[in-house]
User: Fold this.
Amino acid sequence: MIQQIFNEQDLPMADLEKIGLAKNGVLNMDEDDLKALLSGRRTAMLRLENLNTDGLHIPSLDAKLSLKPNDKGTLDLLVHPIYREAEYPTYLTDTEAEMLEKGDVVNMQKMIFDGEGNPKEILIEFDKDTNEFIITDTEKILAPDYINNEPLTAEQKERYRKGKEVETGDGTTIRYSGTESKGIHSNKLALIASILIDGGISYMLFKGLHAAFGQKQDEKDAALMSKGYKQALQDMQKQEKTKGSPLNNHFENEPGNMYSGTESSR
Assistant:
C-alpha cells in the first residue's frame, strides 16, 4: 500500500488531450481511473474514440492506461490495447505461460536478476483484458497493517506480498492483483485498509471490489459489513474532520495504494 506516487500537475496533459481524456488543461476522466494513474496502477478498460496519431485515424480503441517516468524526469502515458497474441517473458516456460493464460493459476513467483545482477523476486499475472503478462516487483507491494481495524500478522502480510489470498477474522479475504485497476481483490464489496505512517494511521476506503479470478462473490455476504469495518469507517470520518492533521492523508477508493508500479512483458 503506497500513497499517491505521482502528482496531478505532472500528468502528460497533451497526450491525454490527444485521446480525449482532457481538454484545455481540464481532465475528463473517471475519478477511480485518475487515482489508479496517480498511484502507479493501470486504469480500467477505457473506450477511446476518434483518435488521430502519426497521421492515422482510429475510430475507437479499447485500452488501459498507465504512467511511467522517463529519463527526462517527466511522465509518459502508456496505452495498453488488446493484443492479438500474448508475448510472455523469457523466464517463463511454455507450460507456465499457458497455465497463466488459461487461468489454471492466478499468478506465479519468479526470482530473476536485474540489470546489475541483483536478485529480484517478481509476481507474474496474466491480464485477460489486454492479453498481456503483468510483472510486479514484490518488494514494492506493501501489505496493509489493518483490514477493517483487524491487524494482519507478519505471515499474512508476507502472503499478501506474494500474491496469495489472506483471510481475516471477520471473514474478509483479500489478494493483491496487478491486473485489477484497484490493485486488490476481495470477497467483500467494500473494506477499509489501514497503514501505520510516522506513528499515525492512514485509512483507505475500497469500494466496488471484485472477487478473485475464478471466484464469485456471494451477493448477500459481499454486501455485509462487519463491526470492524463500521468502526474503521467511523475512525476514518473522525480523522477527516481534523483539519490540517498530518494523518489525514488517506486516498479514498485507493486500493492500489497496496502498490502497483506494474509493467507488462512487452
